[in-house]
Design brief:
Number of strands: 0
Radius of gyration: 28 Å
Strand content: under 5%
Structural class: mainly alpha
Number of helices: 29
Largest sheet: none
Shape: elongated
Amino acid sequence: MDRARGAGLVSALLVVATIAGCAYLAGIPGDFVYDDHRLIGKNEGLRRPFDARRAFLRDYYASDVDRMGLGYYRPVAILANEADFRRGDGEPLAFHVTNLLLHAACSVLVVLLARRLLGGSVLAALASGLVFALHPAHAESVAFISGRVDPLATLFALAAILAHLAANRSRRPVPWRFVQGLAWLLALLSKEMAVTAPLLALLLETAEEGRPPRGRIARRATRYLPYAAALAPYLAMRFVALGTLVGEPTGATASLARPLVVLGSYLAWLVLPPPGLHLEPAPVSGSLAVLAACLALGIAAAAMALWRRRERVAAALIGWCVLTLAPVVQLRPIETDLSERFLYLPSVGASVLLGLLLARTRRRVVAAGALAVLVAVYGTFLLQRNAIWRDELRLWRAKLEEDPGSVKANLNLGRALASRRDPSGARAAYERALALSPELEAAIRAEMASLAAGESDADPLGALRRALEATPDDGSLWSNLGFLLLEREDARGAAEAFERAVSLVPLRSTAWLGMALASVELGERDGAARAAERALALNPGLGLARLVLAECALREGRACEALLMAREAKLGDAEEERRRAGILAMAAARCPAQ
């Protein structure tokens, strides 16, 4: 019997992992979208030699170009991005594969948790895992590369909770307690929402064992020492990196009704996720807000009633959903009002609760039919959302279909159109954003000026200078100006532009490369070599910077050294190859060894 149950569990795990992975296969060829551009695509730090300090000593949203911060400390997510960037040569494919594997792993852990809580029922655990694997709200956490912080945090939080529960029944609990503390530390270092894991463990433990007698409270409390051991280094690391333990207050007016409205909305989406994209919607208002608040209160009352009736596991699973949403149920608005990314960890409780309800359905045919319908509906919604997250233009156009008044969607659509060389479409999107939000005129006009600078019109130099008049502290524009002046053989003007660029963005490798190229044209070998070395220190893959060093060595009479450096340089286009050919020809003629 035990062998048959074990085989059934393994089969359930394989089925859930396979379905969780297959559901997202269509998103594998997807592009970088939304925050991916800042965190990955345009992240200069990923192109530099690996340095773990970048992950542990700054805000998640900070970059090597600026010190932007939102109070998020997520070094595990940063390290995951570093690994995928190097493994996949900076292409999106490696990131999408990792997200798919993370989701499959989380789905497997959901099955294991459900089996533990539902009396060992493999079928109920399988149902829980399938619902979790295909939940439409997860598209934003899996198909969207930067949404990976939620699967990462959920993976480690579930590992910590499962280790906690396993240690409670183990004759050798110490290894499990070690895993419990380490996994929670990794969960916290992935995303702040994992802070609720010890409370979830307490909730499930109490549901299983009841309240401890007075004489054993202290003994049971020792089970939570691993969490304390993990929390201390986390707080220390967070304070060193961010200078604070909590984010800055928004200054917005507090509202006692807002948490109930937000909580009710999230709880409704856990069971009935809306079709379509459903990206960062605004909180509901009017009668819908009243309904959402009543739903939140009703679910909380239902959990308490179930607990009193000794339906503790069901009550604990409802409590799981509420507790995991507590960090994003705000008295004051936060940076993102509502987001389905926040449902990834809460949906674990909802999925296991659904498995419990199906397991208690007397007629197996009815339970199987209900599960089949739910899986079909969820799968249909999920595949639709997954396809939308593959492409930037499709994403923001879908968002505008849902919310035509979204300033964010118009701005991002403008950027996407500009990157695809559709300046007229981009300008139209920016104009719509400006009409919707006149108070952002200065910032929007600056972006439009940058767009104009990138257009291939009759006067690109004039467009760049106009853009710089609007945004004189834009290091990227100064760098672009420098390269344009180099093309026009104005080396002196280019050097001045690059000097301004590196003063504004000292960690941008391409600006230092431009400085090196301009210095070579001016005959300033020492300055060219220093700038090229700086560019290579920031990005060792800049083959053109190695060519500059080879050219400097050649002009200083070190022909053999120049020959070796020119041969080793990895180049990216025909113009760079022509430059290398010239250096190689001169170096070979002067090197005695050749």
